[in-house]
Amino acid sequence: MLYACSSIVNETDEVKRTLWPMMNLNKPRIAVLFPGALGDFVCLIPALHALAENALLQVFAKTEFADIVPRDIPVGTLERYEINRLFVAGGAFERRVRDFFSPYERIYSWTGSGLPVFAGELGAVAAGRARLFPFRGADSTSHQADYYLSCLGFPQNHCRAVNIPLRPEALKWREAFWDRYALKEKAALVLAPGSGAREKNWPAAYFAAVARWWRGRTGGAVIVLLGPAEQERGGLDALAVNFISARNLNLAQVAALLCRADLYLGNDSGITHLAAAVGAPTVALFGPSDARRWAPRGPKVRLLSLDVACSPCDLDVMKSCPHRKCLTEFFPEKVIGELERHAEITTLTWGGVGITVQSGSRADQMKENAG
Questions:
Q1: Phi, psi torsion values for 168, nearest 5 degrees
Q2: What topology is assigned to 12-151 in CATH?
Q3: How far apart are CA 136 and CA 122, in angstroms?
Q4: Do residues 192 and 278 make contact, with C-beta atoms less than 8 angstroms apart?
Q5: Quick check: 50 and 159 in contact, CB under 8 A?
Q6: Distance of alpha carbon 302 from alpha carbon 338, whole angstroms
Q7: How are beta strands 221-226 and 244-247 bridged, if at all?
Q8: Which of 86, 111, 226, 249 could form a disulfide with 253, with the two C-beta atoms 3.0–4.6 Å apart?
Q9: If you average pLDDT over residues 277-305, what whole number do you get?
Q10: What is the dihedral sign for C-alpha 314, 316, 321, 327?
Q11: Given this model, what pLDDT does residue 190 score?
């Protein structure tokens, strides 16, 4: 799921002229090269905060991610000439490439792992200042956020919280959105029916059934988040027509909208990670993906999944699965039943901090574990 970018790309020379002179330049300067999507990046944020405690960071990733980190962690594009040249033999010896990387005392890259040319060129340009990490850890039982922290030598509990700043301009936009649709006196359910992989998506008709239940149960409103990927794939017309549609938002606006939600429901997706991180009461639907690695983290998170023997599964299996029963047989009545069982959801109060995790026997999948 991709969203619009509201931020100007922060090139390194701009950072040195504007941001760094206002900060403690005695701190080491660190470059972070990160190729992941939104959910991956939200999992990286605790590691970025840990690094920023004692360093000046420049992150190179998707530029739209600048909307969800503090302004003192600038985000520039990963798709720039000097980085792309590291994928070409001899690129590290270009003067422009060497000058670009020279200000950084350390370079941490999750880009290019397993590519010998990139590894060699990064090593040559960094002269011992770089570390290259696999994008995914070998231990599938370790949460992705913990893996990123461990790459940098931080303990898993060093900086577990995800701090998403809310931009004033996005909050102003949200208030106008609430006024436009007369939402101030209504309980708001936010749905995100998409994800980065169609195979992880609960059927759109099932989302629509929950939306109708919410409207009848609470008298509230339903907001459907649609990014460019969902609009391109299609199949969500019934949701878009019958409920409030929020389209083509930048991530600052998405974060502001989510933190105002009375309940959020979504697939295993980057938006679900963002909803949990901003503190929205979040219900995440897991089918083929592994919640041990990808469970969204936040103060008000509940995971729901169906007891299917083949879930979770590997990516290749997920892409070729002929039945997708972990999602297609996870009927909306079951999800609504789970929501009805929990008074903190249907009465719009969240009684206690917790996160549901999948552990132990499959009969325990719906068990709630405190903290």
A1: -55, -40
A2: Rossmann fold (3.40.50)
A3: 19
A4: no
A5: yes
A6: 10
A7: parallel
A8: 249
A9: 93
A10: positive
A11: 97
Burial call 228-259: b when 16+ CB within 10 Å, e when fewer:
eebeeeeebeebbeebbebeebbbbbbbbbbb
Residue 212 corresponds to which tokens in the numbers above? 């109708």
Q: What is the DSSP letter of 227?
A: -
The interaxial angle of helices 332-341 and 204-218, nearest 10 deg, is 40
- The Cβ of residue 347 has, within 10 Å, a number of other Cβ atoms equal to 11
Top-confidence residue, 127 or 347 = 127
Q: State the sign of the Cα–Cα–Cα–Cα dihedral 361, 362, 363, 367.
A: positive
3 state SS of 60: strand
* Domain ranges across the chain: 12-151, 168-370
Mean pLDDT of 360-365: 28
Whether 168-370 and 12-151 are alike in CATH topology: the answer is yes
The answer to whether 281 and 262 have CB atoms below 8 angstroms apart is yes
Q: Whole-model pTM? A: 0.86
Cα–Cα distance measured from residue 59 to residue 48, given in angstroms and rounded to the nearest whole number: 9
Give the lowest-confidence range in 5-19, 28-42, 214-228.
5-19
168-370 homologous superfamily: Glycogen Phosphorylase B; (3.40.50.2000)
pLDDT reported for residue 343: 55
Q: How confident is the model at residue 25 (pLDDT cuts 50, 70, 90)?
A: low
For residue 245, the SS3 value is strand
With H, G, I as helix, E, B as strand and everything else as coil, classify residue 244. Answer: strand
